[in-house]
Amino acid sequence: MTRLRTTAVHGGRDDLADLGVHALPIDLSTTYPIPDQAEGGHALQHLAEGAAHAASPVYSRLHNPTVARFERALATLEGTSAAVAFGSGMAAVTAVVQAACVLTGKPHVVAVRPIYGGTDHLLSSGLLGVRTTYATADRVADAITPDTGLVVIETPANPNLDLLDIAAIVARAGGVPVMVDNTFATPVLQNPAALGATYVLHSGTKYLGGHGDVLGGVVACAEEHAGPLRQIRIITGAVLHPLGGYLMHRGLATLPLRVEAAQRSAIDLAARLDAHPGTGLVRHPSLPGADPAGLIGTQLRGPGAVLAFTTREDPTAVVRRLELITPAVSLGSVDTLIEHPAALTHRLVPDTAREASGVPTNLLRLSVGLEDVEDIWDDLDRALSGYDRTLSGHCEEDYIKSSSSDFRERAVSH
Ligand SMILES: *Cc1c(COP(=O)(O)O)cnc(C)c1O
């Protein structure tokens, strides 16, 4: 097996030489000629039973070669024998719940908050006929019942960057399949399957695509679990468009470089934000005290490029003052994005549950992009400093005079 950057560039491309092409072909066919209808029938049967491929794709809802290449590349990066792509991250979450809970007749889910707001809402809405117990990480074992079909966790968590010990959760799940949402870490920083996770989920809309121009999701898992996911995808039609498969596959080639560069800036910005008088609590796995279990360097190869911070004043006022940073939901794009979880991504999570899971109302989430870090900082500093200038009449020199011990004390008190 080649090393990460090499795998990211070459994964899923093994048939290109035989095809005599260099770039990934985008196969837009919805249907495929079947001169021998009996043979076509066998192919359809294979695919309907969950096979990864057959003699003919038959029909693009059953199989698509462009999407299948992306799946092979992602599976290689995650170290799993298979991956199954969907039209969005939420379609992927839905398929996992259907495979683990609906198909098996085990309609109970245990989830550890915080998780992505959409996943939280899906699990609590009862839409799929499942009921969900939200447990803290150390109480997962207590929450499991004989009809628990799935444990859902996310680490680093959206939006407050909490870290969970995946292997410990898998042990507490006691044989119940665990789904880890690996969207924030990407396969560059973390491979949950190696730690016992059954399903590794990505919203490909974020880092995998990486440019804010494609919606998609993917689940990396063992082949035995991929079959049911493919069957569900065929029946429900939650397919990824081949253009989306192409864009996410192309994105994989630069994924390690993008994550490494954005992460470097995020480490720098987290430290500067932590020392800024306009912020309260700053959350990034790189900060002192953020990783008490020592997961960075073992489970997680780096702290990632998303951070969060509370503001001293109304967070919407801070966002309004930004000029460079894009005020928008989503993350993992080439440009830096900021959003207010309580207003947007986590709006549908009940306030008390949101606060209790460590997502205060005045928290902002920042997805650090690939701009020059000094330009990102200038924008943040200017926006956060508006507070002291307008409300308490301080000028910028006052910050410079503040001693570093004040900052440390402030960090500890949070
Ligand atoms: C965005 C996101 C999702 C949902 O993905 P979509 O592609 O928007 O459907 C799931 N989990 C996490 C962590 C996300 O950030």
Could you give the topology of this structure?
Layout lengths: L3 H7 L5 H4 L17 H12 L16 H14 L3 E5 L2 H14 L5 E4 L5 H9 L5 E4 L5 H4 L4 E7 L11 H8 L4 E4 L4 H4 L9 E5 L13 E5 L1 H14 L5 H33 L4 E5 L22 E6 L3 H7 L4 E2 L9 E3 L11 H6 L6 E5 L5 H20 L3 H6 L2 H10 L1
Parallel strand pairs: 2-3, 2-4, 4-5, 5-6, 10-11
Antiparallel strand pairs: 1-7, 6-7, 8-9, 9-12, 11-12
The site of pyridoxal-5'-phosphate has 15 residues, from helix 5 and helix 6.
Gap from first CA to last CA: 44 Å
| Strand order, largest beta sheet | 1-7-6-5-4-2-3
Number of strands: 12
Mean pLDDT reading: 93
CATH class membership of the domain at 255-413: Alpha Beta
CATH topology (level 3) name of the domain at 255-413: Aspartate Aminotransferase, domain 1
Number of helices: 16
Overall radius of gyration: 22 Å
Low-confidence stretches at least 5 residues in length (pLDDT < 50)?
A: 388-414
**CATH architecture group name of the domain at 255-413:** Alpha-Beta Complex
Helix content: 40-55%
Strand and helix order: HHHHEHEHEHEHEHEEHHEEHEEHEHHH
Strand content: 5-15%
Bound molecules: pyridoxal-5'-phosphate
For the record, what is the CATH homologous superfamily label of the domain at 255-413? Answer: Aspartate Aminotransferase, domain 1
Report on the structure:
Helix 4 runs parallel beside helix 11. The two termini are 44 Å apart. This protein has a domain at 255-413: Aspartate Aminotransferase, domain 1. It has helices spanning 4-10, 16-19, 37-48, 65-78, 89-102, 117-125, 140-143, 166-173, 186-189, 223-236, 242-274, 315-321, 351-356, 373-392, 396-401, 404-413; strands at 82-86, 108-111, 131-134, 148-154, 178-181, 199-203, 217-221, 279-283, 306-311, 326-327, 337-339, 363-367. The protein is 42% helix and 13% strand. The protein has 414 residues and is of the alpha/beta class. The chain is built from 16 helices and twelve strands. The strands form two sheets. The protein has a seven-stranded mixed β-sheet with strand order 1-7-6-5-4-2-3, with helices on both faces. The chain has a five-stranded mixed β-sheet with strand order 8-9-12-11-10, covered by helices on one side. The radius of gyration is 22 Å and the shape is globular. The longest helix is centred in the middle third of the chain and has 33 residues, at 242-274. Strand 2 (108-111), helix 6 (117-125) and strand 3 (131-134) form a beta-alpha-beta unit. The site of pyridoxal-5'-phosphate has 15 residues, from helix 5 and helix 6.
